[in-house]
Amino acid sequence: MTIDRISGIVLLVLAGYIAFETRVLPLGTHKVPGPGYLPLLLASILGILGILLILLKGKSPSLRSLKWPEGLHAAAIVGCCFFATFSIEVLGYRVTMMIVLGFLFGVVERMKIWWALGLTFGLTFGSYWVFNNFLRVILPQGGLGI
Amino acid sequence: MAETIQNLMLGFSTAFAPGNFFYAIMGCLIGTMVGVLPGVGPLAGISLLLPSTFGLDPTAGLILLCGVFYGAMYGGSTTSILMRIPGEAASVMTCIDGYAMALKGRAGPALAIAAIGSYVAGTVSVVGLMFLAPPLARFALRFGPPEYFSLLALGLLVLGYMTGGSMIKNLAMIVLGLLLGMIGIDHMSGYFRFSYGIVALGDGIGVVPVAVGLFGIAEILATAGNPFRPEVLKPKLKDLIPSRQEFRDSILPIGRGTVLGFLIGIIPGSAHIISTFMSYAIERRVSKHPEKFGKGAIEGVAGPESANNAASCGALVPMLALGVPTGPVPAVLLAALMVHGISPGPLFIKEQPTIFWGLIASMYLGNVVLLLLNLPLVGIFINFLRIPYRILYPMILMFCVIGVYAVNTSFVDVGIMSVMGLLGYLLRKCNFETAPVVLGVVLAPIIEMSLRQSLAMSNGSYAIFYQRPVSAVFLVGALLMILLALKPLIRKGMDSKWREQLAKADDNE
Asked: Is B160 left (phi over 0), alpha (psi -120 to 50) or beta?
């Protein structure tokens, strides 16, 4: 199966899902279009484009030809992003960033402990000082007040 | 003319205010750094700096962010010439002859001509912006919802066509962006759409988390595990001054690149990248020694570098005059204006003369600052290239989180950024362009409002779009784009080749 065919199928499924989701929104009329009017129209266009991709793009590389040499790094970074999402307001900016940076420098990049610690603390507290105190960007302190 | 000069004086008095002048310099410096660092494009740089402008007045904020935009265009040439790695996509063509010159020991003149060309192009295109934007805005005052809808439809189709790669995929990304832009409360009926009970999604998906996710995080995901460490050539700064022959050979390419870049910059799509491709092709075609291209021809540096700077200025014309962004960077700049409660659109120049003319004047100053700072400080800037990427990417990630969180002080935005980052990474793997998604998100509310208002005006008849002359002209343009897109399906030719090349340039960034 080629990358484009699979992409086309994903787009088609997505279009179907969006069309299904718009069932709860009033479509309105042509004269007074409702909130579901344009999403349904766009979902239809997306579906057509998905079908065109499936039909016309048979010569693209196969899915198996995709290489993922950066896969482990990417998974770790995505994990850090989601961790930051859920912890930034609970633990606060500084604790969250210390965990994220410490993990990336120490575990993913396997830096020497003193380098990893120095960079983690330096960047976390340095960035907090610059943004919070100098640029007046409010960063969360979390339940611990740190 | 007298009115323009009077307005420009007002602009200079605004730009020379100590705070604004300081932010112009800061924007240029940060922009140069952003341009120098591979993987941190102007879009990510501007998005990350956006929250720090909230405390500033709108003029200073816009001056800072625009400084980053055109500063990045200057900086992008440094890595292209010294490392054969484009700092940002618009510098791809500079790699070819710039690096070849560096290998011959002529890195200094290549950097100097790139900076001079960028300066000339930047300055001349600001003149174009200054004279073109106000009349265009006055003309746009006649636009009603049908004209706006047709204009946006044309803009999106042009974007799909000009972005490179597969038109079908680009259109799919535009539609995806438009659908993402519809998440949240429908402003005409008050219905919640696709928000799944998450209150924070009521306001919709912001352009900043989408842009930072698709461009900043996706870039990190794609490059973090790459062990490749390119060599950085050290230029001899005492040899910076180009020879008389090199100057002579660069004058016409700079002129042609400037005009071409500015005109292409107005068109939606990857204008700054396309302009460099076209400039390089034209220089090679008009050259008496085309065989020199690829082996260190100074024209191959002067033309594309001038073109990308002029294009970045040209891209501001529709944004400032019509309130319609032509690419992701103007879209984020537009978001910056809206954060400050300023409505972009045809009335912007009339209602906010201090901001518009202050920005114009600051761009003149910024170009001078960039020329004066870039060459002497090139040695300092290339030191950023020596920071190992395994230290750099966690820093970029940290700035992404700060930048996105600070816009609305919402962890939901950080979540959106994370999802968009993952999506952007997978889309890149499958050869999809992500810029159309960002533009779709920005334009979705305007395009939906225009469509619904137009249909209400016409009692539900779609004929309104071709019965009004201006709207009909835009629709003819949109139809032309569709026909051009269908051409490669019938006949493989030049058309599809340049689009494939453009897609490769984006991938190489």
From this structure: alpha
DSSP-derived secondary structure for B13-37: HHHTSHHHHHHHHHHHHHHHHHHHS
Domain positions in chain A are 3-65, 71-134
B179, A50: Cβ pair inside 8 Å?
Answer: no
Q: Is there a contact between B169 and A72 if contact means CB atoms under 8 Å apart?
A: no
C-beta separation of B40 from B396 below 8 A: yes
Closest alpha carbon to B53 in B39, B42, B67, B40: B67
- φ, ψ for residue A79, nearest 5 deg: -60, -45
Substitution target from B30, B168, B482 for chain A, most A beta carbons within 10 A: B168
Which residue from A42, A70, A85 is facing B418, i.e. has the nearest CB? Answer: A85
B 195-224 residues inside an 8 A Cβ radius of A = 217, 220-224
pLDDT tens column, A56-78 = 866 778 888 888 888 889 999 99
How many alpha carbons lie under 13 Å from residue B367 in its C-beta half-sphere? 23
Q: Which residues pair with B184 in a beta bridge?
A: B193
Contacts of B11 (CB under 8 A, 6+ apart): B356, B357, B358, B359, B360, B361, B362
Cα separation, B255 vs B245, whole angstroms: 16
- Per-residue pLDDT, A41: 94
3-state secondary structure of B193: strand
From chain A, the residues in CB contact with B399 under 8 A are 127
Is the CB of residue B304 less than 8 Å from the CB of residue B280? yes
How many CB atoms are closer than 10 A to CB B13? 14
Whether B32 contacts B318, CB under 8 Å: no
Beta strands in B225-310 (DSSP E): none
Q: How far is CA B92 from CA B326, B389, B480, B503, in A?
A: 21, 20, 29, 12
* Residue B93: φ, ψ to 5°: -70, -25
CA distance A116 to chain B (A): 9
Each residue's pLDDT tens digit, B249-304: 889 999 998 988 888 887 766 566 777 877 888 888 888 888 888 888 888 889 98
Q: What is the pLDDT of residues B473-493, one digit of tens each?
A: 989 988 887 787 776 666 655
pLDDT tens digits, one per residue of A10-46: 999 999 999 999 988 888 888 889 899 999 999 999 9
Q: What is the distance between the alpha carbons of residues B37 and B87, in angstroms, rounded to a whole number?
A: 6
Distance of CA A30 to the CA centre of its chain: 36
CB pairs under 8 A between A and B: 180
